[in-house]
């Protein structure tokens, strides 16, 4: 099957984001740890493509370094959800009954809270910082992955090959590991991509309200926050970090949707 | 002039020839059977007539309905024909109906599409449902509230609401039990005779065709090998393929073997199993015993509780009362892992019984998980290779994936998987029901051979009486959770005692009986 235009754009944008992170480790146009007040609030030019901020820091360098922070928070948060949520979902599907009810109702409980609100609550109680932001965002990923894993697993548990595995004396965990997990991997990868983009958005939101990564670590959300008082005379301060968030989230969503179209059997049936 | 005349119909899909110069006709009121093994082009012939061939198809020749060529006409023209002049009924009544609409609304929809007013469509629908043998109070039911047979009747009502001149039925009874099948076939026959519509009956079951069709067309690899008036044709088959097809459709009864002796291998004593919310017990006090080397058939229609009993016998689900014993000791879902090695199973679905991501080697070797000590890799591979040879699969199959095999080959893989731990008893759950006669014949031969070689006992759980008759020594007939009759297969088939067994046997299509029946004036 030919990849859809959306998938191609998604791959390109996500590639750009990953490349920016990789690049930030070896090179940035300017050093952002030294402040140069003489160079402050310069509009975009050949020397500073995206301009400079009120401390005279180069915006290209800030965005490259901010990408690193976004990636780290979103990746670990998605990983946290995957590592805790998937086993819970598999457990619910494998055991059914009371265990399943317990897992799913706990999930519902977490789902019932507006996610950003609870993230703010967690970081407000535990104190602001990148680690707490990761935990706060990760908690929301758990029920999402648990649901996806459970749904995929439930449909597989009815298959004859699961019966065959049980006749072969395999227990629920071994079957979940050997037969269920590999067959729902596609679904999980798609969900992980989407959760990853939501993680980036959530991190930007938390830093925007000052509960994410703390200065001097560059962060897209905080750049946006600092830009808002100067937006009248230095609009580039808001435009470029804003674009970075929009393009990254758009890219990941397109990638996720594109992968879902390719791997979700329910959609594939309607298409073929 | 014929109602339908198919003239040198040739079809290629992406350049690959699938139909090759088919010519046959259907007269008004005539039933024409289209038979052949799977892949012979039966369904594609029907789809070509309707102009519903898959993308990439190129058709040549002619398909004339009342002298008007339908082939390669624009889809708009054909939409006016489909449903109005030609109706179609598919195999699976569960998926042919929209679950969100009542059957009355669905039948009326066809009439609405062809320009009838809402009230007229409703009236036509009510009439069609009654004609299809459904009582008027079922009109407002949803498909899930109906039985399989009722759903197929609704599908027939949908196809015949506008009294089409031609009705195409693609395996209309394959998914149904024998008694329901007999009723549906009776209905189709009445529709053809009373409405005078031509009927194309596509099936892999020769007995069905012989019982019903006026003329039969036998297909092989997209070409017609023989056709003619049904009875004359089957009394005098000339092509070796047709003869093989007929032979496989009417397998010889199993040769009598010495009665099995010894202590029971697998035993059920007063087993009861019911599900919460369901009325009645799925399994209601069943006792049975299977001795070493015995071949036993467990026959029942869908809903008789045989699948539930099977899961209990395999200790996959607990029983609420009674006991399952394997080799003289209780066999329950918890514990008993050491004795699972004695009992293995082959499941119905040749597609769903394998993890699509596993290679044949790993699939067949999966039950080795039961070995007390881990089996070394080299030995594992050698054992799988030996079994592949035993079940008649090529040696290179070992590194391939299940989707690369045909249905029959997959069931061979499933049999190999069941045998790798050298069990004493193998349960076969409708293991050959999804296969067509020729492939089924080969698999039954294989099972027969393996049974003699390995001395393993088989329990055939099936609704297919032909299979039971061909391979079992003893048969148990199950109805509504109970065993209503039990005895040596030859005796039960010759002189069934219980009314239910009698009804089952009377409804089961049999090639020879059907032929004899048709010859009488």
TrEMBL record, chain A:
Pfam families: BPD_transp_1 (PF00528)
Topological type in the membrane: Multi-pass membrane protein
Transmembrane portions of the chain: 7-27, 71-94, 106-124, 180-202, 233-256
Protein origin, superkingdom: Bacteria
Keyword Hydrolase appears in the UniProt entry: no
Positions of the ABC transmembrane type-1 domain: 67-256
Chief location category: membrane
UniProt keywords, alphabetically: Cell membrane, Membrane, Transmembrane, Transmembrane helix, Transport
Location in the cell: Cell membrane
InterPro entries linked to this entry: BP-dependent_transpt_permease, MetI-like, MetI-like_sf
PROSITE patterns: ABC_TM1
Family: Belongs to the binding-protein-dependent transport system permease family.
UniProt protein name: Peptide/nickel transport system permease protein
Protein species of origin: Caulobacter ginsengisoli
UniProtKB/TrEMBL annotation, chain B:
A Pfam family the protein falls into: oligo_HPY
Keyword ATP-binding tagged: yes
GO MF assignments: ATP binding
Keyword entries, A-Z: ATP-binding, Nucleotide-binding, Transport
Membrane topology, as annotated: Peripheral membrane protein
Record's keyword annotation contains Nucleotide-binding: yes
Compartments where located: Cell inner membrane
Positions of transmembrane segments: none
Domain of life: Bacteria
Residue ranges of domain ABC transporter in the record: 4-246, 266-505
SMART domains: AAA
Family note: Belongs to the ABC transporter superfamily.
Protein name: Peptide/nickel transport system ATP-binding protein
Lineage start: Bacteria, Pseudomonadati, Pseudomonadota, Alphaproteobacteria, Caulobacterales
